[in-house]
Design goal:
Oligomer: single chain
Helix content: 25-40%
Radius of gyration: 21 Å
Bound molecules: arabino-flavin-adenine dinucleotide, P-hydroxybenzoic acid
Structural class: alpha/beta
């Protein structure tokens, strides 16, 4: 028994996008939650992550009542560009998908909006909660314990939502035999730079070059986000700004390279690329959502958006349980979520394979990759398939 006993309907582990969005959707539906987060709020906000939101994610933020700033500051994008063989090929998202689009709005800002909304509604969040432990989730009376502000807290709840990311405690709490893991590691990472300078282009540019992949993205009309494919083991210390900008220019098509304006980096980090799925996503009263259950390489801008669709299915199931005593939503959760997860895993793997240089590829592999790019640049049907995945498949 802890020093302090609490009770809630849904205990949420993790205050990243998945945990916070779930908390807000359940609050709007009148369902009580407690969020436990290992880090401080400032630390969570300091992590630079995603930047592209699907329309379905925007709709969920509207449902959660946190989309005002997104609509005021987010950038609607109706297309993006692929750059290879010295030319740019625009993917007309709106024209190829009957008007669908994406919105550029940093995950940091989305997280900030969700944190502020949760604080405003007074729903409890335990930041810097240590030694979080999940218990009895194979029963109807699961419990979560943690150390918080020097006290041992025990939370009795009906359900636990494991939204604690790829290094969380939730899936680590499961017996290995209960999980089926599927994984692919890529032989490279992304070196990312943020700079307060106007973006090189008003739409994103994904460049494929024999020196490696590069991505030109943004957070606003005054803040740019760039990435370079880099070998495993790359050290940030080996990449001063001047080298980064020079290498980026070499990988871009001439038109984009000529327009690039560089500026001092305000953030520089390296992210490894991997594909990962843990099946199933439900264990009794414990439900996994977001990076706690799956990881995609960031090439297709799917990670954050998959966390949102998991949360959509899980919130629907929990609301059905509490409002109508209906178990079907929760029983279908894992199968529904995984059906969409695997399609996004496929797309992210495909786009990564299309645009990156693979150190161990054979001459045949490289010919196939070049043919895939050439086919895509010349086929409306191929571009339409890319576009419908990029804007987000239906929930
Ligand atoms: P998160 O990892 O965001 O949140 C999990 C939270 O749980 C964290 O705050 C963590 O501190 C907390 N936690 C962990 N263990 C805990 C414990 N034991 N107890 C309590 N709390 C615990 N996606 C894109 O779409 N585009 C991108 O460009 C992109 N870039 C990325 C770059 C990096 C370096 C990384 C790591 C990911 C990137 N992603 C990107 C994916 C990323 O955006 C995730 O998909 C998104 O953060 C998923 O959100 P959550 O599932 O909430 O997980
Ligand atoms: C980003 O802006 O961080 C970003 C955009 C598109 C991607 C990945 C990352 O595919």
């Amino acid at each position: 028994m802890g020093d302090k006993a609490l009770r809630t309907q849904v205990a949420i582990i993790g205050a990243g996008p998945a945990g916070l969005l779930l908390g807000q959707l359940l609050h709007v539906a009148g369902i009580d939650t407690i969020i436990l987060e290992r880090r401080s709020g400032d630390y969570v906000l300091s992590r630079i992550r995603a930047g592209v939101l699907e329309q379905g994610t925007v709709a969920l933020l509207e449902q959660a009542g946190v989309a005002a700033r997104l609509h005021a500051e987010g950038l609607r994008h109706d297309g993006f560009n692929l750059a290879y063989d010295g030319a740019r090929h625009r993917i007309d998202l709106a024209g190829l998908t009957g008007g669908r689009h994406v919105t550029i709005y940093g995950q940091t800002e989305m997280t900030r909006d969700l944190m502020q909304a949760r604080a405003a509604c007074g729903a409890p969040s335990l930041y810097e909660a240590a030694e979080v432990h999940l218990a009895d989730f194979d029963s109807a009376h699961p419990r979560v314990t943690c150390l918080f502000e020097g006290q041992r807290i025990e939370i009795a709840c009906d359900f636990i939502a494991g939204c604690d990311g790829s290094h969380g405690v939730s899936h680590a709490s499961l017996p290995a035999a209960a999980l089926s893991l599927h994984e692919r590691h890529y032989p490279f990472g992304w070196l990312g730079v943020m700079a307060d300078v106007a973006p090189v282009s008003d739409e994103l540019v994904y460049a494929s070059h024999e020196r490696g992949f590069a991505l030109c993205s943004m957070r606003s009309a005054h803040r740019s986000r760039y990435y370079l494919q880099c070998p495993l083991g790359t050290e940030i210390a080996d990449w001063p700004d001047a080298r980064f900008w020079d290498e980026l220019r070499q990988r871009l098509d001439p038109q984009t390279a000529a327009a690039l304006v560089d500026a001092p980096s305000i953030e520089k980090s390296i992210a490894p690329l991997r594909s990962f799925v843990a099946e199933p996503m439900r264990f009794g009263s414990l439900f996994l959502a977001g990076d706690a259950a799956h990881i995609v390489p960031p090439t297709g801008a799917k990670g954050l958006n998959l966390a949102a669709s998991d949360v959509h299915y899980l919130a629907e199931g929990l609301i059905g349980h509490y409002r109508e005593g209906r178990a079907s939503g929760l029983e279908a959760y894992s199968q529904r979520a995984l059906a969409r997860v695997w399609k996004a895993e496929r797309f992210s793997w495909w786009m990564t394979s299309l645009l990156h240089q693979f150190p161990d590829s054979s001459p045949f592999d490289r010919k196939i990759q070049a043919a895939e790019r050439a086919y895509l640049a010349g086929s409306r049907a191929a571009m339409a398939a890319l576009a419908e995945n990029y804007v987000g498949l239906p929930f």
